[in-house]
């Protein structure tokens, strides 16, 4: 059974023009020791998904329905205080732009210390200190940095500190939201390698939220593609790269530049994402889809298992893709 | 760290030097007979021999540079000139009044800062609720009232109608209170002018604090602290408060200048014997050496407040040093 089970998670943002449906019935499983990439363009609900799973979304974001089961416990049934006990101990987050995730007026040490202290009040102080040293070393930082203020550290170092902080209470799951935004490509690669390393060492489940398909496909076993608040395709990285079923995924793949293989023309996806505040009937991608038919405007396609472990939300995915049966 | 402080102190020494130079230049740049500024309008009644004798006595016949160095020497010795109106050295006149203004100002800074910070933080934490709206409306209302008017209304209500509090001076004249009774008497006299000043100062601190706190609450590290499972209260006080206070310190210290100089109106309304009222008297009497002395002391207070602010920043924001 999966450690993290998300079922029908729906989140809206209250706006003056009505509710914006940012997350539409998200179903997701994450296993121990698995790295799942969540891909999509800006505003498709990736970050909303992350915060909604943690039930920590702030107003005007409101979770309408859905369950999040973490090792069997439904987070929705917990009180605020109980939820706080689970956060970080069971499930930690590396927020978007981790460089701003450190309090500028507190030393690194006190910020990691706090995370451990809150959840394990009985652990002796010197033991926590020793653990902080180990944590910093494990993310490739010299432990002497713990006595510094965040502004003394470079972007990559801050990112490492935030990863160390996420590991502080030995969580089962880490949600990494755009963990490498704002870092240069070299440092990005280092951080991704580090994430992969700790994932294997700690047998962690990592939900990697990103817009960079190329980067995610290098480290993740499975990939989920999001479009306008819905998961449109979910499957193993290999199958999605070889045989994308959803027209959006296909378009996404042809819109990326590849360093390898034959030179091909990069095709942008025509059109724009529909407004999230409008009530939508049918497939959300149909206005931009080459393969649209009458049915697409009438019925919203559901996420279906087309081939083993490969899910897609398109009425015609069986026809469009090169489906392996059995 | 040491370099930061020595750098700051050097800056302020230069500032002090420039301020005193300006203070020296100002009366000499003004049109007319400098004697007019020293002795006042009585100068028209003096004969030319008397004027000449006065000039020699004042050293106004000496070359400008000699006058300048003499002036700087006097400043260093704490000599700000002689008030012919009061017939006393300016330093003595100001020294007698300064403690009252300092008492009023320090209490005002303490009370308005604490009130402003508490109310501002509360409004930010309860953003959009009735508490926020109520506090905001109250502060805008208070801010739009002129100080002399607030003072007069307070005098009318608590002094004239209810007769609860004294409205004149800093202590009861013709009484010989001692010890506790004397302290209570001073406090009673302090309430109305202090309230007026707090009403004036608290609004800007409230507005700055509220805005700053709202900004800080939107920062990623606050979300991070919440995600870490840190209890709400601790997030607010330990993570948000300290960072939100930095701009407030600036506003408070900028207010100090206003308080020492701007107490003029309040002190005049309540006939409070501080430097503000002294400045008003000096202007009414055209007592130029005294006016100049008051300005110089106000300058010193503003510079002093800035030094305190600069020394406080590193305690709040580690990035400063």
Spatial ordering of strands, largest sheet of chain A: 6-7-8-3-9-10-12-11
Total helices of chain A: the number is 10
| Strand-residue proportion of chain B | under 5%
Q: Tally of extended strands of chain A?
A: 12
Query: Structural class of the secondary structure composition of chain B?
Result: mainly alpha
List the chains of the largest interface with their residue counts. Answer: A-B, 30 and 20 residues
Structural category of chain A is alpha/beta
Helix content of chain B: over 70%
**Largest sheet, spatial ordering of strands of chain B:** 1-2
Q: In percent, how much strand structure appears in the residues of chain A?
A: 15-25%
Describe this structure in words.
The complex is a heterodimer of chains A (326) and B (321). Chain A has 326 residues and is α/β, with parallel strands linked by helices. Helices cover 30% and strands 24% of the residues of chain A. Chain A has ten helices and twelve strands. Chain A has helices spanning 46-53, 80-86, 108-119, 125-138, 155-167, 185-202, 213-219, 237-242, 247-254, 317-320; strands at residues 4-15, 18-30, 35-39, 61-70, 73-74, 91-94, 173-177, 205-210, 222-227, 230-236, 304-307, 310-312. In chain A, the strands form two sheets. Chain A has an eight-stranded mixed β-sheet with strand order 6-7-8-3-9-10-12-11, with helices on both faces. Chain A has a four-stranded antiparallel β-sheet with strand order 2-1-4-5. Chain A is globular and about 65 Å long. The two termini of chain A are 22 Å apart. The relative contact order of chain A is 0.14. Chain B has 321 residues and is mainly α. Chain B is globular and about 85 Å long. Chains A and B meet through helix 2 and helix 3 of A and helix 9 and helix 10 of B.
């Amino acid at each position: 059974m999966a450690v993290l089970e998300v079922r029908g998670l729906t989140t809206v943002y209250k706006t003056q023009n009505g509710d914006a449906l940012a997350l539409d019935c998200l179903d997701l499983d994450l296993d121990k020791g698995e790295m799942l990439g969540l891909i999509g363009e800006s505003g498709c609900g990736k970050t909303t998904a992350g915060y909604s799973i943690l039930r920590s979304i702030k107003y005007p974001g409101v979770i309408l329905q859905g369950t999040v089961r973490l090792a069997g416990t439904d987070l929705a049934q917990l009180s605020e205080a109980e939820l706080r006990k689970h956060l970080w101990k069971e499930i930690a987050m590396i927020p978007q732009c981790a460089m701003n995730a450190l309090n500028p007026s507190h030393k690194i040490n006190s910020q990691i210390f706090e995370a451990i202290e809150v959840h394990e009040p009985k652990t002796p102080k010197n033991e926590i200190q020793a653990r902080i040293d180990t944590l910093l070393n494990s993310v490739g930082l010299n432990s002497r940095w713990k006595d510094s203020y965040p502004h003394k550290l470079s972007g990559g170092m801050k990112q490492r500190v935030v990863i160390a902080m996420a590991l502080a209470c030995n969580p089962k799951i880490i949600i990494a939201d755009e963990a490498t935004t704002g870092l240069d490509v070299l440092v990005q690669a280092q951080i991704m390698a580090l994430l992969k390393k700790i994932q294997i060492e700690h047998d962690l489940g990592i939900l990697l939220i990103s817009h960079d398909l190329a980067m995610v496909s290098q480290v993740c076993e499975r990939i989920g593609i999001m479009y306008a608040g819905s998961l449109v395709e979910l499957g193993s990285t290999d199958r999605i790269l070889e045989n994308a079923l959803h027209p959006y995924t296909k378009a996404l793949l042809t819109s990326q530049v590849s360093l390898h293989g034959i030179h091909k023309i990069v095709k942008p996806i025509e059109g724009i994402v529909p407004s999230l505040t409008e009530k939508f009937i049918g497939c959300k991608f149909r206005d931009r889809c080459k393969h649209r038919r009458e049915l697409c405007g009438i019925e919203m396609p559901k996420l279906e298992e087309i081939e083993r472990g490969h899910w897609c939300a398109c009425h015609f995915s069986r026809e469009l893709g090169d489906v392996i049966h059995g | 760290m040491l370099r930061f402080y020595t750098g700051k102190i050097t800056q302020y020494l230069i500032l002090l030097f420039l301020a005193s130079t300006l203070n020296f230049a100002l009366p000499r740049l003004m049109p007319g007979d400098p004697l007019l500024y020293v002795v006042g309008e009585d100068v028209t009644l003096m004969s030319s021999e008397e004027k000449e004798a006065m000039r020699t006595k004042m050293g106004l016949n000496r070359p400008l540079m000699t006058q300048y160095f003499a002036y700087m020497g006097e400043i260093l010795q704490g000599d700000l000139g002689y008030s012919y109106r009061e017939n006393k050295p300016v330093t003595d006149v100001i020294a007698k009044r300064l403690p009252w203004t300092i008492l009023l100002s320090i209490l005002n800074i303490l009370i308005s800062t604490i009130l402003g910070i508490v109310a501002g933080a509360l409004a930010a934490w309860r953003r959009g609720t009735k508490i926020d709206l109520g506090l905001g409306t109250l502060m805008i209302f208070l801010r739009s009232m002129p100080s002399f008017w607030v003072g007069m209304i307070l005098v009318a209500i608590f002094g004239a109608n209810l007769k609860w509090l004294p409205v004149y001076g800093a202590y009861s004249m013709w009484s010989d209170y001692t010890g506790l009774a004397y302290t209570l008497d001073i406090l009673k006299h302090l309430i109305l002018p202090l309230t007026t000043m707090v009403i004036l100062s608290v609004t800007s601190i409230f507005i700055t604090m509220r805005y700053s706190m709202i900004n800080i609450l939107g920062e990623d590290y606050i979300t991070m602290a919440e995600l870490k499972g840190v209890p709400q209260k601790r997030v607010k006080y330990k993570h948000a408060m300290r960072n939100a206070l930095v701009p407030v310190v600036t506003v408070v210290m900028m207010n100090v200048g206003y308080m020492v100089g701007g107490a003029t109106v309040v002190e005049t309304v309540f006939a409070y014997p501080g430097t503000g009222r002294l400045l008003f008297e000096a202007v009414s009497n055209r007592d130029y050496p005294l006016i100049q002395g008051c300005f110089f002391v106000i300058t010193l207070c503003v510079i002093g407040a800035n030094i305190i602010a600069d020394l406080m920043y590193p305690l709040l924001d580690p990035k400063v040093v």
